[in-house]
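quick one, 142 residues, struct below
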Amino acid sequence: MERQFTIGQLAKAAGVGVETVRYYQRRGLIPLPPRPGGAYRRYSLQDLHRIRFIKRAQALGFSLAEIAELLSLQNDPGQTCAAVRQRAQAKIREIDRKIRHLFEIRTALADLAGQCPGRGPLQSCPILEALEDQSQKEENHD
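---
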């Protein structure tokens, strides 16, 4: 007989909280098992594997909506590796865009930090002045 888990046992084995399991159920990522005769719901080893899949995919940057797509592909016998590869490549492009944006932010912040002497009154802080100037420019455009 296949090993079965209560929700607490499943959550512990997967390294998540019970509320996470329930959230995944509400999102349709894992099925809600039946409650046999009013007893506790019993989860399968497959449910454990699915939660671990979800956590690994999240660690790679996939959103829960994207993970739902991956799971859907996995359950569709007509799909090929190409569909999964396409989603992985799209995720790589998204990550590259975020890296470029973060680099732009870092460069701008480094420039501001370089302008600050690190001493003197707060009222003449070039970092705060630049942030205030930007805030006023945005206000004028509204």
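The longest helix spans residues 81-115.
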